[in-house]
């Protein structure tokens, strides 16, 4: 029996969930429908259907749920608060970009049973070690394949299972494996026999060969042999002897081998599939960078039109979008403010049909979630289209709701020649907007000033009427803004960009400009070195073209190449661009700040178009042997469908480093495909390079289907034999789905 089932057996809350309940699924004030929910026997899957749906139903895994919120803790449930008391309500928040599930129980006790039950299952799933996860995975497959639910599997059910697992195996060989596992000779596999069948099926011959290369007796690696492997293959150098003993203590399951100071093939495999055996150095996942440098010396994880859940014309505006962005580590979020009814400013995408939310609610959400994922400062980028009266309301709301979190004046009362550091600004929210006068002067100005209120230099997006003359006029007209709001702007004063020369001669460190993606790209191409210098002193924000009404994204790498810190993306839109963003900011504790390379922070002349001209230039060769894949996901869920996987390695960085290479495809095997193909790259600026591994299902008649990916900064790669743990298009982990590679990095001694 699996771990979940054992827990469920003795737990009253989980028993209530297994018995099932009629819960109201709520999507809006007008959409509230009864659904029958229940926890399935596996203790991990929640099943639900409407009473009118016949045999059709839906399911989701508890592993996909991040947290349970109790009461009216979502916009939807707040909107129906008068109808349904808080003690009946709860929200399931899913990982990735999937929307919340808002539910209303029939009694407080029933609500509590589901809240506690789901919370226990989440905690249980998160506390599993690697072996328990594998055991759970095996049990899940057993449950799926046991069609008649008799706790045994006949050969026909096993054949169906193999198709479900992405394996195309001839019947004779499948029967051979089945017979090996059927110790009882009953013609059926029971629980333990199925575990044996799975172990035979998942034997890693690729890892066995590596093990054999270093094991003299073919059975174990002695401490000295493991040290040799770590030194020669994993390139660990002097640390290898000490680390070899640590690995045996940590991963070797056999107490006998441990006492002998040796590692078996089982321990070796456990090490290589663990975080220590991953391509991304686990030490880089922790907060490990100097956080005491000026803000301008960091790349900052940033969101554009943060309030939108979907597209920019008709999409939903939501506080939930801010929660999701902040949870992802975003440290710069955007608010588009417009005059609302009853003197209350609203947030939405102006001149479009996107829905509206209250500025008050956005700031409340920001105050609650700003520092849950990271303690470092959040920049609130204000797109201000409000009248002076409602700007005063905004200032009052910022002041009262955010309290001490809101930075109101320079840290020590003095204005320095460079910006303060993320460390200095821990726990602070910085307002980015227009400001009356300078930070240095006493400001004996009037309570109102005239200027362009809108921060961005061009219309961000066409209106629903396709950029009508009225919309352009509204965007461009000169407007007044309030002293109260201006006084809250300290280190992020929005100014118009004139030229790099003007900025060098006249601009202050706390002044920053916003650039459309096209303007920023042109500056990067024509005056890259000057852009790098500018960004060493001042902050720059780049935002997507106004024509991207579908909330698509531009490639952020081009702007990181010239040191732009705030490269704002539509984080609600999955794809390559967000893969790169997630890849860059996965390091340094996912804190939302990544220290730029030293040649982008000092007075060096770095031209991303001519990297070989910089002092100390050395290019590197990256050699990646793509060995095998394990348990790759199915693209087409039809029972007989099996993928034909290929692997593509993509390099993103300066223009000379941009490259792609791919393996051949493997026919009908997503379970354990074997490639053994080597791809080679030359990297000119490793400090800026990102390496993206993509797995696709080959299709000769149409475009290949995406299966999974993982993106890693070049500087965070661990060389040697490594596993790459694949992520879905949405950025969530695909359980047990990996690539096995051998990575070699060396200096290029001659031009290749």
Automatic annotation (TrEMBL):
Free-text cofactor note: Binds 3 Ca(2+) ions per subunit. Two of the Ca(2+) ions are bound to the C2 domain.
Q: Which residues form the PH domain?
A: 15-123
* Keywords annotated in UniProt: Calcium, Cytoplasm, Endoplasmic reticulum, Glycoprotein, Hydrolase, Lipid degradation, Lipid metabolism, Membrane, Metal-binding, Nucleus, Repeat, Transducer
| Any single biological process term in GO | lipid catabolic process
Q: Which Pfam families match?
A: C2, EF-hand_like, PH, PI-PLC-X, PI-PLC-Y
Coiled coil, from the record: none
Q: Locate the EF-hand domain: which residues?
A: 133-168, 169-204
Annotated positions binding Ca(2+) 3: 305, 334, 336, 383
Residues at which substrate binds: 432, 434, 514, 541
Q: Where in the cell is it found?
A: Cytoplasm; Endoplasmic reticulum; Membrane; Nucleus
Region entry Disordered: which residue ranges? 441-466
Q: Which residues bind Ca(2+) 4?
A: 642, 644, 668
Q: What broad class of enzyme is this?
A: hydrolase
- The residues that hold Ca(2+) 5 are 697-699
Q: Which residues form the C2 domain?
A: 600-728
Q: Can you state which reaction this protein catalyses?
A: a 1,2-diacyl-sn-glycero-3-phospho-(1D-myo-inositol) + H2O = 1D-myo-inositol 1-phosphate + a 1,2-diacyl-sn-glycerol + H(+); a 1,2-diacyl-sn-glycero-3-phospho-(1D-myo-inositol-4,5-bisphosphate) + H2O = 1D-myo-inositol 1,4,5-trisphosphate + a 1,2-diacyl-sn-glycerol + H(+)
Name of the protein this chain belongs to: Phosphoinositide phospholipase C
Source organism of the structure: Oncorhynchus tshawytscha (Chinook salmon)
Q: Which gene encodes it?
A: plcd4b
